[in-house]
Design the sequence.
C-alpha cells in the first residue's frame, strides 16, 4: 500500500512539474514576442522621423529590397479596433510567434497586387472580429505610411485559396483563423480585404 501511495505521489509530482515547465515555456515565448515587438515598434512609430537603423528591421523604403524572413517589416494599425502591432516578414510558425507576418512572395505594402498579412487569432488579430467596411488600416514602414480602407469581411474554408490570389490593384488582405474561440485547429479563415487609399510621406 505504501509503495502504491508513493508511486501516486511521484506521478502527481511529475505532472505538476511538467505543467510548471509548460507554463514557463509559454511565458518565455510570450516574453520573447513582447520584447521583439517593443524593440521594433519605435522604429515605425513616426514614419517621417529618421531613426537609427536596426540590423533586423527591413529597409522597406529602399527600392528593390526584398525583406528577409524574421525581419521587422512595418507597423500595422487599425485605430478603431485598437490594433497596433509590428509585422514580421514570413508566415512560418516561428515568425508568427513574434506577431503577424507578411506572406513571402506577396506584394509589399503599397505595391500593386495583393499584400497578405496573417496572424494568430489569440494575438492582436483577435480584434479583427469587430472589423467592418470603412475601417482604416495604416501600415507604416521606415519611410512612409500606407493607408487602406476595409471593403469586405468574410469567412472561408481553410483550403480556400481565393484570398491569396494576385490582383491588378494594390489591396491588403488580413487573415486569421476562425472561429475565434475554437479549440484546436480552426476549420475556417477570417478574411479582411482593404483597398489602397494613399501613400502618405
Sequence:
Amino acid at each position: 500500500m505504501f509503495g502504491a501511495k508513493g508511486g501516486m505521489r511521484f506521478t502527481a509530482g511529475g505532472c505538476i512539474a511538467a505543467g510548471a515547465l509548460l507554463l514557463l515555456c509559454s511565458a518565455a515565448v510570450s516574453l520573447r514576442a513582447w520584447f521583439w515587438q517593443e524593440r521594433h515598434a519605435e522604429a515605425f512609430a513616426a514614419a517621417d522621423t529618421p531613426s537609427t537603423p536596426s540590423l533586423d528591421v527591413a529597409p522597406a523604403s529602399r527600392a528593390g529590397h526584398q525583406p528577409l524572413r524574421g525581419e521587422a517589416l512595418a507597423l500595422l494599425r487599425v485605430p478603431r479596433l485598437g490594433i497596433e502591432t509590428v509585422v514580421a516578414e514570413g508566415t512560418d510558425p516561428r515568425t508568427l510567434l513574434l506577431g503577424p507576418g507578411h506572406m513571402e512572395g506577396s506584394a509589399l505594402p503599397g505595391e500593386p497586387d495583393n499584400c497578405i498579412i496573417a496572424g494568430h487569432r489569440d494575438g492582436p488579430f483577435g480584434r479583427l472580429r469587430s472589423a467592418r467596411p470603412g475601417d482604416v488600416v495604416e501600415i507604416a514602414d521606415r519611410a512612409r505610411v500606407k493607408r487602406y480602407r476595409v471593403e469586405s469581411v468574410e469567412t472561408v474554408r481553410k483550403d480556400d485559396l481565393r484570398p491569396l490570389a494576385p490582383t491588378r490593384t494594390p489591396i491588403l488582405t488580413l487573415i486569421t483563423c476562425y472561429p475565434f474561440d475554437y479549440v484546436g485547429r480552426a476549420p475556417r479563415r477570417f478574411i479582411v480585404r482593404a483597398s489602397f487609399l494613399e501613400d502618405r510621406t
Summary: The chain has one domain: 40-200.
